[in-house]
Amino acid sequence: MTLTKIEPQNLRTPGPTPIPDDIVDEMSLPMINHRGPEFKELIEATTGGLKQVFMTNNDLYILTSSGTGALEAAVVNTLSPGDKVIAATAGSFGDRFVQIAEGYGADVIRMDFEWGDAIDPEAIRAELHKDPDIKAVLVTHNETSTGVTHDLESIARVVKGEFNKLLLVDAVSSLGCIPLPVDGWNCDVVATGSQKGFMIPPGLAFISISARGWEAYEDAKMPRFYFDLMAAERSLSRGQTPWTPNVALLYGLRLGLDHIIGEGLENVYERHAEVADYCRAGVKALGLELLANDESRASNTVTGIKMPEDIDGGRLMSMMREDEGVVLAGGQGKLTGHCFRIGHLGWVTKDDITEVLEALERVLPKVGFKS
Fold first, then answer.
1. Is 342 helix (H, G, I), strand (E, B) or coil?
2. In whole angstroms, what is the distance from residue 277 CA to residue 101 CA?
């Protein structure tokens, strides 16, 4: 079978993200027995490194799945059918968390916010006051579909500090790029994926669970098998995983964590903030409009941009890809066709964004944009 040759691209989707050459090489190391001593060393090293990035002493597990698998694990390991939960959403990925909880039979109190707005902690406080039987709050830290980072710290102060409810967090596009001190903010379950800030391909998910989360596990009645965290706990105590792991990605993860920890978390956060500021300034200089209604809540991992009404958005995206070698992300959900997005997370520098901005400057007039 002959496949189309993939030419080098400036991949600016908010996941998957570009992979450094040394990590590509690392993932070609020889295969090992995932029940042997070499794997035990590998899984223990990567689990320990992830705890540093999560800033947690909580239990943490590596799952062979996409980030959505870790979100499902967050739900099924802590909740039972009929449990009342608040699910706050302001975008496509917030909606996905809602759908997972509803799919397993939770009694979901859905809190919808305008796409482009940030979730309001005061609204969550008001909803929690209404019903003491609410068990948990589900929230997405960074909404990839709109380019908005929600104020998780303030939400956590309400959910945990005032009401002591379970807090389940989708951190798929934030953790490792945007500050999220899991223990400092008292988050019970935090889920993320490999293909974002960790600089490796899709296929691994990471999840932490607090002591309070384990208490909820004891009462949880939702069905679980592959994503049963107690199975992960029993296996990790032997230096294994319950099911067949993706060994090659774990090689890459080990080196990716070395890069993150070597650079220093604060430096990683600062780099992402500087690149994001640079991207937003450049986008506005071109006469384009951000999706984020409050720029102070704009994401440092992805910039959402309103698609100008007078242009052919599909042609813009294809010309950027085919003529300029720049791959952007389109809109999702109800924003399909109405926005495009520039990812700037993981292995990213200002030079990568300069290429994007210069390409946009060349392509936009060709598709009829008049700033």
1. strand
2. 35
Last residue in a domain, options 244, 261, 278? 261
The CATH number that applies at residue 298 is 3.90.1150.10
pLDDT digits (tens, 9 = 90+) for 193-210: 999 999 999 999 999 999
pLDDT by residue (tens digit) across 112-161? Answer: 999 999 999 999 999 999 999 999 999 999 999 999 999 999 999 999 99
- At 231 the three-state DSSP class reads helix
Domain match, 276 and 243 both:
no
Q: Is residue 203 one of the residues assigned to a domain?
A: yes
Note the Cα 80 to chain centre separation in Å.
25
Residues 6 or more apart in contact with residue 271 via CB below 8 angstroms? 263, 348, 349
Of 231, 261, 291, the position where a domain reaches its end is 261
State the pTM of this model: 0.96
Contacts of 304 (CB under 8 A, 6+ apart): 116, 145, 146, 147, 148, 290, 291, 292, 339, 341
Beta strand pairing call for 302-306 and 339-343: antiparallel
Q: Degrees (nearest 5) of the Cα angle 269, 270, 276?
A: 90
163 to each of 9, 166, 217, 223, how far by Cα in Å? Answer: 48, 9, 19, 27
Range of the domain at 330: 10-16+264-367
For residue 190, how many other CB atoms are within 10 A of its CB? Answer: 30
4 part of a folded domain? no
The pLDDT > 90 percentage for the chain reads 96
> Comparing C-alpha atoms, which of 61, 73, 334, 302 is closest to residue 197?
302
- Same domain membership, residue 303 and residue 251: no
